[in-house]
Design a protein that fits this description.
The structure is a single chain. The chain has 916 residues and is of the alpha/beta class. Strand 19 and strand 20 form a beta hairpin. The chain has four domains: 235 residues, ATP-grasp fold, A domain (Dna Ligase, domain 1); 90 residues, 2-Layer Sandwich (D-amino Acid Aminotransferase, Chain A, domain 1); 135 residues, Phosphohistidine domain (Glucose Oxidase, domain 1, 3-Layer(bba) Sandwich), CATH 3.50.30; 313 residues, TIM Barrel. It has 35 helices and 31 strands. It binds adenosine-5'-diphosphate and magnesium ion (2 copies).
Length: 916
């Protein structure tokens, strides 16, 4: 018999770990149902059904029947049928994917209501106004999300009725107004969509379910997924929930709550409540909410019950929960919960608090924070408001320091950001249509809505600075300006500074200070536990606790990319266990350029030797400095990599200089420098390359320019000897760049051995340093087994490997067409940001395996930016690298993610029974 999947689950059949199948919303509704909490009954259609629908454009066979069955049992339980004229059962049709996507997908409330049943609803509730209000909401939501009618058109009709009545809020509309509105909405739907609003409850339900399925591929949903790196092929579940009504009068209402402050992590009562309202009124900010604590005064019994449920949920989920609830005439109903989004600061503080409370262990705490969050905490903040006064203050909704020019609509935000400007998106409130502008902006400022408004929720999710509810601002999008108290007018293009940690908004560019967390890492070790008090102190202790655990857990070591003693010292403070990449090219700049010029111009061996002799002591000094700082730790020094002409004058400049000199030369034959410049020009012309990235560089220089690499190797060896003589323990390693085949490496390695032997002889100190190579060309990866015969170590240069594998020159492609590539879904994230696991990563994996087969003890690491990217770090852990190397500032992120990779890897193994 063919396997027929089960497409529909009653709430009682599910649980919280079925997110992939039931979506977060469906899984958690099931969990709450089974915890005995007051959830209106309902059922969930699986993501599998959605995937089948998206693949074929049609409902999978069997779905209709299953829905029918579950609906029938819901009707039996409720004692009334969907849309039953005298007493209609109404339901909501709610989207819910495995990952929470706030406001991205569409939900329709009040399904089942029609001309035939609106009277029955009114009679049952004893409230005409309520029934017509529910009906107009249904037509509005259904028209917009199911029939694709522009939502603004409904708003316009609503505004018109309000205006005619002189009403400032929808609450002032009476039954007659709402009846008129229903008629107007129906006409609008018929005109705009060419279809009548469906009167049959079952058609409403079927159409709404399909619309939710289809909304998975809506523009906003796609954009959000791209931003959050959520795969496109998961699909959404659909939950169908019996309606409960918060719009039944003053003793009803709807609200949202957090069990802890999602901005700071502090425990307490956080949330917003809105009386006599339904569904999304709270987050949409159409009326001003009251703080949740006020509910105690309004309805003490419901308030107490809510707090009790919040405690149950937090103990059960062992985490910050975010909740939607509705009170229908004094009865509390839970409509949603999920583990809440939070700021980076809150993530660290909550994880550490929960460990201290004994609810989770240190491994779990480590799983619950991310490298991206740590990176955010290391960003600078605004200097304390010593100098400038804020022009206004709003709610600190998502921390950070954002400076940019004010813009008033999302299109301008996108356009200006595209031109390289920093912008702050200023709106009265945001809605999902503003998403592209929010992505483009440095920060978001709104005049309405609380900590749970759309702007706040989305900004926190994206890690963007946000101040919301700055109510003193008069935002005028039509005239592209806002007015702050005291008549301060800020027009489009004026620079403002927005502090998401304090809620302050400043005119102009406010000065910024480094983050406490970055300072803390920088400041070696804070021995005195009491040195920092209060909120900052708690955050630093949380970071320390989790970092210490990451360091205990991680298998990979971390090294830094550092070129100078100073950088190396900084790297040590950030936790470096060596240097993975010391570039030598900067050592050829400045004053030293003249030696490079001499080297290039040398006609004879003597000339060349003289140039190299001049460079030798300078290089030795450079290396000895870093080896001193990194005493006892490995220091991988890369031989010269870039093409030599990078150290020579620019072709055009030099041509002009020579031309001028020649013109003068006609008058004054003995013009000094003229002859040298002419020779240099000839050399620059000779060395000019069409594609320097693929030209004479890396190991090729070592093979073509006699003595250059030998000089560098000698400088390294002599520096090591110097350190030994000074009582140190140097661990220098020689790294040969851009090797494509083993022979190239063998030649340089043999040369190195001769140098080591000579230096040992001359100094009486034995030197035999490891010689290895960068793997940064596809051919090197493909022949890594052979190359390993001549290499003591590999360091993957994943930046060049990405360029050469994709055939992209990074500088040329990133700015010119990467946005189109991201839009077109060629990749979800730039392969220069996160290593492309399927292509470039596969080459690395192959080279790791074949390198180890040849030489089991070969040391394997990665240098380059990917070494500090969270996702890439976990990838490198998974394929078995020994270390990652990245810039000093990224080291804490690398340490944290290496630790997370270790504990997450264990969790994976447990999940699939230890088989990998
Ligand atoms: P979102 O994912 O945008 O939050 P939801 O599916 O949670 O969408 O629904 C939107 C709003 O409608 C929420 O405020 C929710 O609490 C409310 N809602 C959903 N289902 C019901 C229901 N059966 N009864 C009353 N309110 C509901
Ligand atoms: Mg919701
Ligand atoms: Mg390279």
């Amino acid at each position: 018999m063919p396997h027929t999947p089960k497409f529909v689950y009653a709430f009682a059949e599910g649980h919280k770990d079925l997110k992939d199948l039931l979506g977060g919303k469906g899984a958690n509704l099931a969990e709450m149902t089974n915890l005995g909490l007051p959830v209106p009954p309902g059922f969930t259609i699986t993501t599998e059904a959605c995937r089948a629908f998206l693949a074929t454009g049609d409902e999978p066979s069997g779905l209709r029947h299953e829905v029918e069955e579950h609906l029938r049992s819901l009707e039996t339980r409720m004692g009334r049928r969907l849309g039953q004229p005298d007493d209609p059962l109404l339901v909501s049709v709610r989207s819910g994917a495995a990952f929470s996507m706030p406001g991205m997908m569409d939900t329709v409330l009040n399904i089942g209501l029609s001309d035939a049943s609106v009277g029955g609803l009114a009679a049952q509730a004893g409230d005409d106004r309520f029934a017509w209000d529910s009906y107009r909401r249904l037509i509005q939501m259904f028209g917009k999300t199911v029939l694709g009618v522009d939502g603004d058109l409904f708003e316009e009709r609503l505004e018109a009725v309000k205006r005619a009545k002189g009403a400032s809020s929808d609450l002032e509309l009476d039954t007659a107004d709402l009846r008129d509105l229903v008629a107007a909405y129906k006409d609008l739907v018929a005109d705009a969509s060419g279809t009548e609003f469906p009167q049959d409850p079952r058609s409403q339900l079927g159409m709404a379910v399909r619309a939710v399925f289809a909304s998975w591929n809506g523009d906003r949903a796609r954009l959000y997924r791209r931003q959050e790196h959520i795969p496109d092929d998961l699909g959404t579940a659909v939950s169908i929930v019996a309606m409960v009504f918060g719009n039944l009068g003053a003793d009803s209402g709807t609200g949202v709550a957090f069990t802890r402050d999602p901005a700071s992590g502090k425990q307490g009562v956080y949330g917003d409540y809105l009386a006599n309202a339904q569904g999304e009124d709270v987050v949409a900010g159409i009326r001003n909410t009251v703080p949740l604590a006020d509910l105690e005064r309004l309805d003490k019994a419901s308030y107490d019950r809510l707090l009790e449920i919040m405690r149950v949920l937090e103990d059960h989920y062992r985490d910050l929960c975010d909740i939607e609830f509705t009170i229908e005439r004094g009865t509390l109903w839970m409509l949603q919960t999920r583990v809440g989004k939070r700021t980076a600061e809150a993530a660290f503080r909550i994880a550490a608090q929960l460990v201290e409370q004994g609810l989770i262990d240190d491994d779990e705490a480590l799983r619950r924070v991310t490298g991206a969050q740590l990176a955010q905490l290391m960003f600078p903040r605004f200097a304390d408001a010593g100098g400038s006064e804020p022009i206004t203050r709003g709610i600190a909704a998502s921390p950070g320091a954002a400076v940019g020019m004010a813009v008033f609509d999302q299109a301008t935000a996108v356009a200006r950001a595209h031109d390289g400007e920093r912008v702050i998106l200023v709106r009265r409130e945001t809605n999902p249509d503003d998403l592209a502008g929010m992505v483009a902006a440095e920060g978001i400022l709104t005049s309405r809505g609380g900590k749970t408004s759309h702007a706040a929720v989305v900004a926190r999710g994206m890690g963007k600075t946000c101040v919301c509810g700055a109510e003193a601002l008069q935002v005028d999008p039509a005239r592209r300006r806002f007015t702050a108290p005291g008549g301060v007018v800020v027009a489009e293009g004026d620079v403002i500074s927005v502090d998401g940690s304090t809620g302050c908004v400043y005119l102009g560019e406010a000065p910024v200070v480094p983050s406490a967390v970055a300072d803390h890492f920088e400041a070696e070790h804070v021995e005195d536990e009491t040195a920092t008090h209060g909120e900052v102190g708690e955050l630093l202790r949380a970071v320390d606790r989790i970092m210490a655990h990451a360091d205990r857990r991680r298998r990979m070591r971390v090294r830094a990319n550092a070129d100078t003693g100073e950088d190396a010292a900084r790297a040590l403070r950030f936790g470096a266990q060596g240097i993975g990449l010391l570039r030598t090219e900067h050592m050829f700049l400045g004053e030293r350029r003249k030696h490079v010029e001499r080297l290039v111009l040398a006609d004879t061996d003597d000339d060349r030797a003289a140039a190299l002799d001049a460079l030798l002591p300078l290089q030795r000094r450079d290396f000895a400095d870093v080896l001193a700082v990194m005493d006892g730790l490995p220091v991988t020094i890369r031989l010269l990599d870039p093409p030599l002409h990078e150290f020579l004058p620019d072709l055009t400049d030099l041509s002009v200089r020579v031309a001028l000199a020649e013109a003068r030369g006609a008058v004054d034959e003995t013009a000094a420098g003229g002859a040298d410049d002419a020779a240099l020009l000839a050399a620059v012309r000779r060395l000019h390359e069409h594609n320097p990235m693929l030209g004479l560089r890396g190991v090729r220089l070592g093979l073509v320019i006699p003595g250059l690499f030998a000089m560098q190797i000698r400088a390294i060896a002599e520096a090591a000897v110097e350190r030994v003589r000074a009582g140190g323990t140097p661990h220098a390693e020689v790294m040969v760049p851009l090797v494509a085949g083993v022979r190239e490496l063998e030649i340089i390695r043999d040369e190195a051995r001769e140098v080591f032997a000579a230096v040992s002889r001359e100094t009486g100190v034995e030197v035999a340093l490891p010689v290895g190579t960068m793997i940064e060309l596809p051919r090197a990866a493909l022949t890594a087994g052979r190359i390993a015969e001549a290499a003591d170590f590999f360091s993957f240069g994943t930046n060049d490997l990405t360029q050469t594998t994709w055939g992209f020159s990074r500088d040329d492609v990133e700015a010119s067409f990467f946005t189109q590539y991201l839009d077109a879904g060629v990749f979800g994230v730039s392969p220069f940001e996160t290593v492309d696991a399927d292509g470039v990563g596969r080459l690395v994996d192959l080279a790791v395996r074949e390198g180890r087969t040849t030489r089991p003890d070969i040391a394997l690491g990665v240098c380059g930016e990917h070494g500090g990217d969270p996702d890439s770090v976990r990838f490198f852990h998974a394929i078995g690298l020994d270390y990652v190397s990245c810039s000093p500032f990224r080291l804490p992120v690398a340490r944290l993610e290496a630790g997370r990779a270790a504990v997450l890897g264990q969790a994976d193994k447990r999940a699939d029974g230890g088989v990998r």
